[in-house]
Amino acid sequence: MRVLLRPAQYLALAAYILFLGFPLLWLISASVKSSGELNSLTVSLLPQQWHWDNYSDALDRQGLVHSAGNSLVVALVSTALVIVIALPASYVLARLKGKIRAAGVGWILVSQVFPVVLVILPLFLILRTIGLADSLAGLTLVHTTYTLPFALWMLQGYVSAIPVDLEEAGAMDGAGRWTVLRRIVFPLLMPGIVATAMFSFVSSWNEFFFALVLLQSPENYTLPITLNMFIGGEGKVSLGPLAAGAVLAAIPSIVFFTILRRRLTSGLMAGAVKG
Amino acid sequence: MTLAADTRAPAPAPAPRKRRQGTMARSRRREAIALVMPSLIPILVLSVAPLVMGLALAFTDARLVRNPDYDFTGIDNFTKLAGNSFFWDSLRIGLIWTVGVTVLQLAASMGLALLLNSGLKLQGLTRVLALIPWAMPPVVVAIMWQMIYSANGGPLNAFLGSVGLPDDTNWLGDFSTALPAVIVVGVWVGMPQTTVTLLAGLQQIPQDLHEAAAVDGAGAWRRFTAVTWPSLRPIVTSITSLNFIWNFNSFSLVYVLTEGGPGGKTMVPVLFIYLEAFKNRNIGYAAAMGLVLVIIVVLLLAVYLRSQFRDDRAERGR
Amino acid sequence: MKSRRLVAAALAAAASLLFTACSSGGDSADGPVTLKFQSLSDQPAAIAATNKIVDDWNKAHPDIKVEVVQAGWDGVYDKLITQFNAGSAPDIIHYEAAGVVPFAKDGYLADLTPYLSEQKKTDIPKGVLDSVTVDNQVIAYPTELQSYVVFANRALLQKAGVTIPTGDTMTWDQLREIARATTRDGAYGLGWGLSSPTAAMVALAPGFGGKYFDGTGTDAKISVGQGEMALPQLVDAMAHQDNSILPVTLTQSGSNALAPFYAGQTAMTIQGSFQAANIAKDAPAGFDWVVLPPLAGPAGPAQAANPQTLSVNKDSAHVEQAAQFIEFFTNTENLAALNEADALIPATTSAREALTTKLGAQNGWKEILSSGQYLTSAPYLFVDKYAQWKDTVATPAYQKFLAKQIDANGLSKELTDGWNSINR
């Protein structure tokens, strides 16, 4: 059985990677094609002529690098805030029993359902009154706020998947509550925290609508806004430079994933629960 | 609001325990509140307040004009909405889109997460590659897939042509293929977050549970249902509910890919609300639509979650 | 208890913040004035041209400084509506007539009639000026226009024995004839990207006497009759009777219909006039293309105008200075330079003539610029629910018609019924 299983698994994995990775490959291919070739009927992965100008064009335009810097700051800070705030709260939420928990959890879900379109105007007014409209700090706060429900929801799910017996076992061994949390719960929660951090970073990095509406000055623009400016009126798209800009924009995310992927494993659970 | 450890602590005598429990419980409660408060404040100011304001408008005839002059109109907006067949059509499409994407996302991501957890070679690399869709902002995703789906200049049709299948389908332009094509893109976009979430959940399952089951003679499938699935269940519930909501609310992807066409086949409800609120500036009517959507989605979720919690309780009782 | 009090306090604070009136305070000092000009330019040449005009102004007027704030076309509507509703819109707003008229009706734009110089007024064709006039107030200066023109592959036309029309205009029937004649050897006569059909149908209807709407604002009524149905039916006939339109283009965007044109799969293509610049750049070496004369229906060569516009925010503290800047921006020399960079048609006759003199010899410019004189205002600009009708009723209906899922009667019924149900 096992002999047959492995090749099938590799095949399945290859199929998945192809599905997930091919569009990026095509995008990279588009980023080195001239606009003449992009607007022709020829379909080939390799360009007929390598057209590196798209990259210099993309970098010259509209302050791509500067807005990438803005995006990076907003994404990192909001992710840190989200984890710090959500972690304790989600622990409480997960260990609660009964109606209050259901209400809290229910509220978290409901707040995500309301279309952002209807919330955006009051939100803008509120931010303006606080003095944070058109600022990266305001955007960071908004990203944090709108990622918090997700983080709470997910982390409390991870926490509830950790059996309470482990904490009790620790308590019975005489460890204080904070020690139990630090030594037993936190390490087990690490994959969940990493998953949540990844998600928070990415949703902030890619977020478009709030940034579009809340940021007015070009020096505050984030990366998706700048990339969007490659699309002109009447739906004209400068495909080559946009593809080049998009490839460049994907790099920080991929770097972030590579750094964090090792933390996605836990393996510390082994031997924690002995009969 | 007591924490589990409290009630199960062994006690020498009832009376002293009760007094100790009283003060301990209160300090626990204060502690818990202190832990929750930092998340409450931004949520209240930046999420609840705008939401309440937005919802309140559903009962008025407000419009986005320079000198807003609106009146409370009670449920007028809702009666008007009941007869708006475009809205209900879009709701049907929205549910097909949402359920389609959510279910497919879960199935595909589960498969991928299991594979990524199987100790295959090059695990580090494949785990990063699996996250590629996450690295693209929505505008780029839409443009990328438009290129791929292109009827006469795209790789999909070129590939189909090379293996002898019909190669001239306009995937995003044909009435019968548009919604499925857009669903595929929705699944593509959503796979990383679901996969990562499930993978983290899989990682939390202690290895010896698997080993114990294997020693007991359980095959791969039995191990999945007896060991993996029960642990994973709360996480699956979490991510499926969230995916359901996000997919329901996602409109920029559909909008850029097809603008709701062809023939209105991909006109999802949030796009409809956007048009009503921003293009027609009937913010009150749009808010009423939003409220109706919220109620419907919440009802659907409540049904789903209740069935999950019931099974949860049944399992724990076992 | 403490937590509940905290919550209540937070809510009260939030509420009191909300009720504080907040209007954008402009500085009323008599010192130097700074104007914010939100400009939408997507490609480097146009951005450079805009910046040059602004620099020239700033040098000549050190006391009225104009600051350019770049924004993108895609998503500008959402940005503007939020800016206006929150009172933080810039002084000078760049957009287009179809988008800006609703803002005018909502009261956000300044009346520019007193600032419009006599000279400028006569320089702008009446039809174009009408497209930016709401309730007898001029709410924007038109700057750049585009029209739908026919690009043709001269080699393919000659091979089919067709004489290239050269008059002032050509008729749709002529187009149909040429398309029929050039549909041969596996190629099609015409490629027309109609994935978003409503804009083209409504813009070209004036040539057939079609208006689509009577009246303005909330009282507008739809009228779908002979004039409105003529063009859809012509396209249907060409596509399904003559088989002279490459079928896949009917569900593609205009830009995507260029690839078959370059490859010789279609002999002609109907595009926005601005594509001339792209065709010059992207067509294969040696590709011999021309622009055919403007298309004329039974009612003439008129097309609906949707110019790009510059407007002034009504709540700006310096409306007069802003209007002065716009007058400068739209003088002949500046307007010609901008339109040359954008490959569009200037909104003033003098700029158009200047550009014809300068670029007339270059391929296509003469015909495109001359088509500009036939652009006129159309009722749809002033109708309240046009955007929603377009996106939820008209576009799906046209798409279904072109896919032969409904017939002509079905189309006109859907257009009318859809409008009525939106306006209930």
TrEMBL record, chain A:
The chain crosses the membrane at residues 12-32, 72-93, 105-126, 146-164, 184-205, 239-260. GO terms for cellular component: plasma membrane. Coiled coil: none annotated. It is a multi-pass membrane protein. GO terms for biological process: transmembrane transport. It is found in: Cell membrane. Keywords: Cell membrane, Membrane, Transmembrane, Transmembrane helix, Transport. Its main location: membrane. PROSITE patterns: ABC_TM1 (PS50928). It comes from the Bacteria. Residues 68-260 form the ABC transmembrane type-1 domain. CDD domains: TM_PBP2. Pfam families: BPD_transp_1 (PF00528). Belongs to the binding-protein-dependent transport system permease family. This is Carbohydrate ABC transporter membrane protein 2 (CUT1 family). It comes from Amycolatopsis thermoflava.
Automatic annotation (TrEMBL), chain B:
It comes from the Bacteria. The chain crosses the membrane at residues 32-59, 95-116, 128-151, 171-191, 283-305. Its main location: membrane. Residues 1-26 are annotated as: Disordered. Residues 16-26 have a biased composition (Basic residues). It is found in: Cell membrane. GO terms for biological process: transmembrane transport. Belongs to the binding-protein-dependent transport system permease family. Residues 91-304 form the ABC transmembrane type-1 domain. This is Carbohydrate ABC transporter membrane protein 1 (CUT1 family).
